[in-house]
Amino acid sequence: MPHPFPDFRLTGQVTVVTGGGSGIGKALAHTFAGAGARVVVLDTNGAAAEQVANEIGSMAQHAVADVSNEDAIESVMEDVARQHGRIDVLFNNAGVNRRNTSFDLTIADWNAVVAVNMTGMFLCARAAARHMRDGGGGRIVNTASILGISGGWYPNIVYQATKGAVVNMTRSWAVEWAPYNIRVNAVAPSIIRTPMTEALTSQPDVVAKFEALTPLGRLCEPADMTGPVLFLATAASSMVTGHILPVDGGVLAQ
């Protein structure tokens, strides 16, 4: 029986997921494989990446790299393209955070977050896009945040700054790379239950506050990201580029 929504399939396509060892990346690695893609699970934590690839099975492999390391990222993307002949989809998802007020944030913490969330996002997109350009096109989906669009709910300046950069890098790449048939979009989740946010989501009073601020009345889960990202990564969104898709339970609609 034919798939009821063929445009949402990735059969035979090659996808790379950064930050694929946990959280949103892990959820999407499984989703891409379920949609028929071969998945490269890339993470700085090799054991986590390998575990996710093993969970998926023969449709997946893992790679270890720090996204802020230009040589490492160029090498990984080159290896993927050489092995599989192309790169069709990049889920540009790896990110870190250092929560602090502007007065108390150290320059070391600022630089650490910028290195991954901004520079790393650039390096991964550029490296993958070179192979997409040479292969006739592709799709890039970046992980932004509603904190890159709004003023935020608590002091988190470096995360807000870098996710704001992701928003505008997405728009810039969408225009720059459109002639190569490379579509670039982003998802912008609200507070989401992942290992990175555990310090917040483990506090019942904090969770209650965020839920009260969300019209749908709950926090975002990794599973809530799979449909939006899959849409942007497939032919289902063939005329969509430069779009920032909030996945926020209505927060930004207020």
What's the layout of helices and strands?
Layout: E1 14-18, H1 23-34, E2 38-43, H2 46-56, E3 60-64, H3 70-84, E4 89-92, H4 107-135, E5 138-143, H5 157-177, E6 182-189, H6 198-201, H7 204-212, H8 222-233, E7 244-247
Parallel strand pairs: 1-2, 1-4, 2-3, 4-5, 5-6, 6-7
Describe the fold and architecture.
It is a single chain. The chain has helices at residues 23-34, 46-56, 70-84, 107-135, 157-177, 198-201, 204-212, 222-233, and strands at residues 14-18, 38-43, 60-64, 89-92, 138-143, 182-189, 244-247. The model has no long low-confidence stretch (mean pLDDT 95). It has a seven-stranded parallel sheet, with helices on both faces. The protein has one domain (6-193, 222-245): NAD(P)-binding Rossmann-like Domain (Rossmann fold), CATH 3.40.50. It is α/β, with parallel strands linked by helices. It is globular. The protein is 44% helix and 15% strand. The chain has eight helices and seven strands. Strand 5, helix 5 (157-177) and strand 6 form a beta-alpha-beta unit. The longest helix has 29 residues, at 107-135.
